[in-house]
Amino acid sequence: MKKWLFLFVICLCSLTFASPIQDRKIDPTALSQLGSALDIPQNADIVIETQKRWLRKPNQERWEITELSPDQRLFVLNWATDQGLFAPWKPVSKIYDKALILGATTSRMQMRLAYLKQLWDEGTRFNEIVWLTGDRPLDIRVDGLTDRCSNESEAAHILWEETNLPEEMRSLSVVFVAVPMKIEGSSQKRPNTEDTIVAWLKLSSEPCKALFVSDQPFCGYQFAVIKANLPNAFLFDLVGQGVDSTSHPAAAAITLDSIARWIYQEDLITKSGQLD
To answer: Which residue of 3, 44, 144, 183 sits 20 to 30 Å from the alpha carbon of 110, by its own alpha carbon?
Structure first.
């Protein structure tokens, strides 16, 4: 069995894929402490155990996750706050070629566009805006605009058209990447972050300096997904608005799900790099 710290330090050292302008890491010692508090043995394989214990069930959406016990919830939220997992991620540069808004529920897409507008007001510049969305059917439990459109991709168009933006930002070129639902056997599955990035690369393969926009606590794992899927010639940064750690009734469980995905992606990057 691999030791916690050994495996995760190896994961963090891999930079064989896209070139992040600023790299993002979880403190491996703090991660070990989190795992121990949640009954993961110190000598366990961190990737296997977090996938088994923290990842949401197949075909389950984040808003369907059951929250942890009150004591575990408090510990996880305090831990994540200390690690900056609810704090905003800011850009390190002022000039980018493209800003790419990652698809999500309608409220989170609105939050991401608003954060991009805030960065523009603070002096960050880019020449094109790209929406990376999928044709996920809107869910009345978490989405707005359900009376006006049927899926995430259509909602992105409405949000773009109806958001009050600075005139110069409004005049930029905008591209909408809408990825169809995936057919798996007799059921359909929504496109994920990786699917939308791959679809965008098919449309625009020319290397650029890209600014991806997410929000917390999803920035970490989406950062790792981007790093794993962009070619080496691309430079990228990822930003995201901070959130109130108690704003969602299942905030702790959702955060653990995101951490598990982050660790898994970093492990894939490391293993792929070792095979090169």
So the answer is: 183
- pTM reported for the whole predicted model: 0.90
Paired tokens of 169: 């930002």
CB contact at 8 A, 129 and 168: no
Residue matched to tokens 């800003």: 99
Question: Token pair of 267, please?
Answer: 């492990």
With CA atoms as reference, report the closest residue to 129 among 109, 148, 152: 109
Residues 6+ away with beta carbon under 8 Å from 150? 137, 138
**Cβ-based neighbours of 158, under 8 Å, separated by 6 or more:** 145, 148, 149
**Per-residue pLDDT reduced to its tens digit, 235-259:** 999 999 999 988 889 999 999 999 9
Tell me: cis bond preceding 191? Omega within 30 of 0 counts.
Answer: no
- Which of 188, 184, 204 lies closest to 196, judged by CA? 204
Distance of CA 221 to the CA centre of its chain: 5
Residues making up the chain, counted from first to last? 276
Cα torsion angle, 197, 203, 205, 209, sign? negative
Q: Quick one: pLDDT band at residue 4, thresholds 50, 70, 90?
A: very low
What sign does the CA torsion over 122, 124, 125, 126 have?
negative
**CB 230 within 8 Å of CB 18:** yes
Residue with tokens 């890209």: 210
